[in-house]
Amino acid sequence: MKHVLYGMRGADVAQAALVIAQALKCEFQERESDYLGIYQTARIAEAQIKVISQTDPEGDPVEEEFEEYETLIYIDGESAFPELESLTAPQGLLEKLRDHV
Questions:
Q1: Could you tell me which of 5, 11, 4, 17 has the C-alpha nearest to residue 66?
Q2: Which CATH number does the domain housing residue 42 bear?
């Protein structure tokens, strides 16, 4: 299973999810958790995508080494999404931050 982390500057969770939904032709659902706050999630085949705010509900960074990104996108699954590699939005560029197998 692959675990990929992307980051986006200049876009909030809803904006980033909309751009990704258009690129991957999928639909996101809004969820809420005590740990993540409000986030967006989608499932494509065997892949789970979560779009979250870099800051948790208490104001702490979720990924300290990537604090300069306002929005984080986690993809867990067997699918690779090459469509995301060069995805740009008016708010910013989606950048791959980490890729683990």
A1: 5
A2: 3.30.310
